[in-house]
Design a protein that fits this description.
By secondary structure, the protein is mainly beta. It is built from no helices and 11 strands.
Length: 112
């Protein structure tokens, strides 16, 4: 059974950091492009970052470049999103995706 389980969200002040995790079962993360998306209240789903299969080339939404880093641990079969210098506009529910499959999400709230 394919399962993606996100964790690591929370409440953080502007300028703070969080690391999101997505534990995957049912397939090897190294064999697929993995993605992070987010959805802010009242807004649509927004792509944030991708890590390619194999060599793991990465890409980012312009507004998070230099602040967010996507990575994966093949031994743990887990995807990560390191988020630094968080801004209020980063507040959203964050989801990891493989294709059309996603987890339940983890809430990130950036507020003073």
């Amino acid at each position: 059974e394919v399962q993606l389980v996100e964790s690591g969200g929370g409440l953080v002040q502007p300028g703070g950091s969080l690391r999101l995790s997505c534990a995957v079962s049912g397939f090897a993360v190294s064999n697929y492009a993995m993605n992070w998306f987010r959805q802010a209240p009242g807004k649509g789903l927004q792509w944030v970052s991708t890590i390619k299969s194999g060599g793991g080339g990465t890409s980012y939404l312009d507004s998070v470049k230099g602040r967010f880093t996507i990575s994966r641990d093949d031994a743990k079969n887990t995807l990560y999103l390191q988020m630094n210098n968080l801004k209020t506009e980063d507040t959203a529910m964050y989801y990891c995706y493989e294709g059309a499959t996603r987890g339940q999400g983890t809430q990130v709230t950036v507020s003073s």
